[in-house]
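User: Assemble these into one structure.

Assistant: Restating your components, then the assembled model:
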Amino acid sequence: MSTPIIKVENLVKRYRELVALDHFNLEIAEGEIFGLLGPNGSGKTTTINCILSLLSYDKGTIHVFGKEMHPDSYDLKRRIGVVMQNVAVFEELTVYENIDYFCGLYIRDKTLRRQYVEEAIDFVGLHEFRKFYPKKLSGGLLRRLNIACGIAHKPKLLFLDEPTVAVDPQSRNKILEGIQELNKQGVTIVYTSHYMEEVEQICTRIAIMDKGKNLAIGTKEELKRMIKKSEIISIEILDISEEAIAALKNLPHIYEVTFENRQLQVLCSGGRHNLLRVLNCLQSMDLSFGRVYSELPSLNDVFLEITGKELRD
Amino acid sequence: MFIHTFQYTLKQLFRQKGALFWNLLFPIALGTMFYMAFSGLSSGETFHAIPVAVVLAEDDSATMFREVIDSLNEPGDDRFLDAVYTTEEEALSLLEAKQITGILYEGSSVSLAVSAEMSSATLEQSILSCFVEEYNMQYGAIKKIAASHPENLGAAAEALAKNTAYNTETTYCDGDMDEQITYFFNLIAMSCLFASTGGMQIAIKNQANLSPLGARRCISPVPKEISLCALLCATFLYQYLCILAGLFYMRFGLGVNFGSSMGYILLTALLGCLTGVSFGFCIGSIGRLNEGMKFGIQMAVTMICCFLSGLMVGNMRILIEQYCPWFNRINPAALISDSFYSLTVYQSHSRYFQNSITLVLISAAFCLCGFLLTRRKKYAAL
Ligand SMILES: Nc1ncnc2c1ncn2[C@@H]1O[C@H](COP(=O)(O)OP(=O)(O)OP(=O)(O)O)[C@@H](O)[C@H]1O
Ligand SMILES: [Mg+2]
């Protein structure tokens, strides 16, 4: 890996007694879409704010674009875009003016700025609303304005802190596609979200964090390989005896079997042809069954196993 | 970047309807109310000699004071004082009976006592207070001459007597005698201090730990100082325009006579506005107090300052002058309305400039405080 675009080493951040970041390490290479996953309060926003030099921290070093980040590293800040978790727009300015204002903090040239603002409006699809005041926008539209304000100046490095909360699926897809498009144009992206599917869909690398610690890092395939569970088999069955369940548990690579609401669930770790083996076993015991599903683990399963809790909002 | 922020801040300010109400319509409405309340009373009264009691010092050594009083007491059109020499008890009972406006005590310097209950004689009280101040100043000068060049004493005393007499005619009597004008002065002073609301918003909107918008500004490549200066300038300009609108409405809409020194009046409004904005900026910059709390402090201080300078009770400022004069020297509301007095009633430019300089110093102190408080660039928590 060439010099990483973001390098965080041993970052410790305390809010009084509460340790929000505990010797946190992170390296993000140029051109990545990096996903930061973690349950509420795990320190995602804190990490971003530390990288941006908004928050003071107790220990550790932070390098951005290969240089140490300070509050007055204006040349670095010029290349960074941020979409904050909290919507921050001016009530008294229209959609267009808001984007123009924030863009103008980075871009001096007026004609270039106009073009950038138009592109940002296109990006989030706020064309019909350009003359609206934020008060008149719905929650989702407001979020989209918030995104536009953060990306209008075409940063090289973009932080998106849960940008798509409350955005409807259609617009969300458009935004996700837009983010991938930006990435293709060479923008490095740091993305936090509660929507596992989003992260799976767009992120090239993912870090899973909890309680301020970086628990696992890698591509989604790597992450999935890290966990024990590799396949989930669900089978509809009217009734099944304890012996049959015990027999299933004895099959190789199967580590958990549960039966609930006429649903038999078999968890497998590694191995091939697990489904076939399970079905053969059931048939040998003369058990008739209905529909059969086999799923690969999702990031949620990865999450569940690593942190011991569900990542759901 | 400066101009960009400046322009957008102005745009925002003029679109804030609530603020526009407080900054523009409220003073205009209050001014109109004053005007209507006074319209029956105002009768363009001519100046009457001010009734006072004079309590001389025991040893009766300083004849100069007596001479001055006597010269001001001479019957005629330009009679300034209607003085009686009494003992202290008599004087107090006269004051209690409201037969006199004030008591002049002769001591190492001359001092004045007025009654809090006589709010109807505000203007007379303030004229007396100004007279006492000027007398003391000139008397001090003469004492110095007496010490260093006793041979010139006679000439100096003569000059003083003349000077005072001269003041009597021009300063005290030609100045605008319209009693109601004091309320308008105080109203403008209040508007100036109300500008602090705008100043407070500056601090809040520029601080990452006080608002998400502040955080957003902090991550931009615009240095904080530039952004702050742009905000301060825009807010100041906006507030000053509001006050100008109010002033012009009073002058040309209501026909309030601010005298001939309109230029100086505009300057005072400008300085007052500067003080207001910087005061708000300073309060707004105080750490992590929540916004409601800051607003409360700012409102309370503003209202107390205005009250003590006589917005509600006309003669408050003179009472303060009597018991706690240093407060009048630093209370911005008092300084502003006193500047107006200096221009129209006392016509004392030295006093006017002294007030103006104090206002500038106060603003500078508040601004400095605000800058120091917001200097920090990283925050412990957002
Ligand atoms: N201003 C603050 N003062 C004190 N503690 C804070 C503050 N901000 C955050 N914390 C604490 O720090 C921890 C990390 O918070 P952070 O906002 O970084 O979480 P997050 O991962 O962004 O969560 P979410 O998914 O809800 O946005 C939490 O336990 C939170 O309670
Ligand atoms: Mg967060």
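The longest strand of chain B covers residues 50-55.
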